[in-house]
Design goal:
The protein contains 3 helices and no strands. It is an all-alpha fold. Helix 1 runs antiparallel to helix 2, helix 1 packs parallel to helix 3 and helix 2 packs antiparallel against helix 3. It is rod-shaped, with a radius of gyration of 21 Å.
């Protein structure tokens, strides 16, 4: 099996980073929901709120904040990967590279450009 081309490597890099970003967004949503639920339980003084609830709430808030902190460097890595992919697409087009690879690269490029701004910490 021949080694992957630079275009293929750049394409896979963008795809992986976009997938990672989507995973962190999902995780952040779940953590925010847990924090809201715990805050509500503490305010209402529900039966399930034991002496450990405040500690658990702080831990969940800390986990949420750590997840938010991931977005800024991840966003920069995606931007760099998109720039590299654009360069590789231009090089492949000028060299009349494989059409299917160029098509996949352009699709990955669109995904990389659609990534939302990082959530505000």
């Amino acid at each position: 099996m021949p080694a992957p081309s630079p275009l293929s490597i750049a394409t896979q890099s963008v795809q992986r980073l976009v997938k990672e970003e989507q995973y962190y967004r999902k995780e952040l949503t779940q953590q925010s929901e847990r924090v809201k639920k715990l805050e509500t339980e503490l305010k209402n003084g529900s039966a399930s709120a034991d002496s450990n609830s405040e500690f658990v709430l702080k831990q969940e808030q800390k986990a949420r904040d750590e997840t938010k902190a991931v977005f800024e460097p991840l966003s920069q890595r995606i931007e760099e990967a998109v720039n590299r992919l654009e360069e590789q697409i231009a090089a492949a087009e000028s060299e009349s590279g494989p059409a299917d690879e160029i098509k996949k690269a352009k699709e990955a490029l669109e995904l990389g450009k659609k990534v939302e701004e990082p959530p505000i910490a």
